[in-house]
Amino acid sequence: MAFPATRLRRLRRTAGLRALVRETRLDLDAFVLPLFLAPADEPNDALPGMSRLSVESAVEKGRELERLGVRAVLLFGIPEAKDDEGSGAWHEDGIVHRGLRALRAECPGLVLLTDVCLCEYTSHGHCGVLDGEQVANDETLELLARTAVSHVEAGADAVAPSDMMDGRVAAIRAALDDAGAADTPIVAYAAKYASAFYGPFREAAGSAPSFGDRRGYQMDPANLREALRECELDLAEGADVLMVKPALPNLDVIRAVRERFDVPVAAYNVSGEYGMLRAAAERGWLDERQAVLESLTAIRRAGADLVISYWTEDLARWL
Q1: Angle at 227 between CA 263 and CA 294, to 5 degrees
Q2: Which residue from 158, 217, 166, 159 is spatially nearest to 192, judged by alpha carbons?
Q3: How far apart are CA 193 and CA 221, in angstroms?
Q4: Which end of the chain, N or C, is less packed with Cβ atoms under 10 Å?
C-alpha cells in the first residue's frame, strides 16, 4: 500500500518504538577488546585503547572488564628484546604467556584470545623469518605453529593467526591437534588487507617493518574475489572463524564473506578507525559516542558476528 496508508515514520516516532523494531543490536557478547602486554605500563593519553599494560595492570584491567560485562580480550605482546626469528613469541616466559597465566587465574570469566604473529617479536618487524629481504613463507609456518601451541599451553582459549602466510592455518591446526589441543578454535585473519589504517597499532605494538612493507603477504585492498579464496582455503585448512581486517573500509567484504560461508565471521575495527574518530571528536567535529555506535552498528549490520574493537570498554559503559 502507498502513502498515506503506509507511513514508515510511525515506528520512528519515539525512542521506545525505534528500539522495538531495531534490526541490528549491539551486544557485549559480540565484542572483543585488544590488550597490549608489555614489561611496564606506558599510557597513551591520545589513544587510551593503545596503552601498554604490564601483566599486573592487565589483571586489574581484566577485573574491571569482567565487572563491566566485557566477555573477551585479544592479547598482543611487546617483548623486552627482539631477534631475527621472533623467539619471544613462543618462549614459555614470554610476555603473552605470563599474561595468559595471570589472567586465567585472576579473571576466569574472560575468554582469552591471542594474536599469533611474529611482527612484534622480530628485530626487523616483518611477520616471519627472512630470506634476504623476503619473508620466507614455509620456514615461518613451524614458528607460528610453535607460538600457537605455547599460547594454548599457557591458557589461551583460542588463537588468531594474523601473519597471512600461505598454509599457516593447516600448520597450526596440525600442531594443536598433536599437542592435545584439538578443541582449541582458530580465529583466522583470513582477509587481512595491506592497509593504511594500521598506523597507531604499529606504534603501540612496536611492530612497524624496518624496511619495505607487507604488501607481499597482506592482501591488495582492491581485491574481493581473492578475499573469498583466502577464506575458502582457511576453512579447508581448519579455521573455525573467518576474520576481515580492517572493518570499515571493507564492509562489502564482510557482507560477501557472510553470504558465502556458514561459519562465524569476525571483523577487526582497527586502530586507524579508532584514531580517526577520537581525533575528530576531540576537535568537536562529531559526537564521539554517536559516531562510534553508528560505526559499530554498521560492522554488525554488514554481517560480523563478533567485532574486535578498541571501543569495547567504552561500549560496555555506554550500554
Answers
A1: 70
A2: 217
A3: 6
A4: N
List pLDDT tens digits, range 75-89.
Answer: 999 999 899 899 999
Tracing cell 575458502 back to the chain, one arrives at: 232
CA distances from 167 to 140, 231, 237 (A): 10, 12, 7
Give the helix/strand (H/E) hosting 226: helix 225-237
3-state helix, strand, coil split of the chain in percent (to 5) is 45, 15, 35
Q: How far is CA 174 from CA 141, 182, 204, 278, in A?
A: 11, 9, 32, 41
Cell digits for 103?
589472567
Sequence length of the chain is 319
Do 149 and 103 touch, CB atoms closer than 8 A? no
Helix axis angle, 251-260 relative to 288-302, nearest 10°? 30
Dump pLDDT digits (tens) for 279-299.
999 999 999 999 999 999 999
Q: Which pLDDT tens digit goes with each residue over 88-138? A: 999 999 999 999 999 999 999 999 999 999 999 998 888 888 888 889 999
Beta carbons of 243 and 190 less than 8 angstroms apart: yes
Q: Is residue 135 a contact partner of residue 216, using CB atoms and an 8 Å limit?
A: yes
Inter-residue contact 65 to 73 (CB < 8 Å): yes
Does residue 245 sit in helix, strand or coil?
strand
Is the Cα dihedral 37, 38, 41, 42 positive or negative?
Answer: negative
Q: Report helix, strand or coil for 302.
A: helix
Residue 2 dihedral angles phi and psi, to the nearest 5°: -100, 170
Cite the active site residues. 192, 245
Q: What cell numbers appear for 269 in the block?
A: 575495527
What domains lie within the chain, and their CATH numbers? 26-243 (3.20.20.70)
Distance from C-alpha of 93 to C-alpha of 141, rounded to nearest angstrom = 21
**Whole-angstrom Cα Rg for the chain:** 20
Reported pTM: 0.95
Q: Which three cell numbers stand for residue 193?
A: 588487507
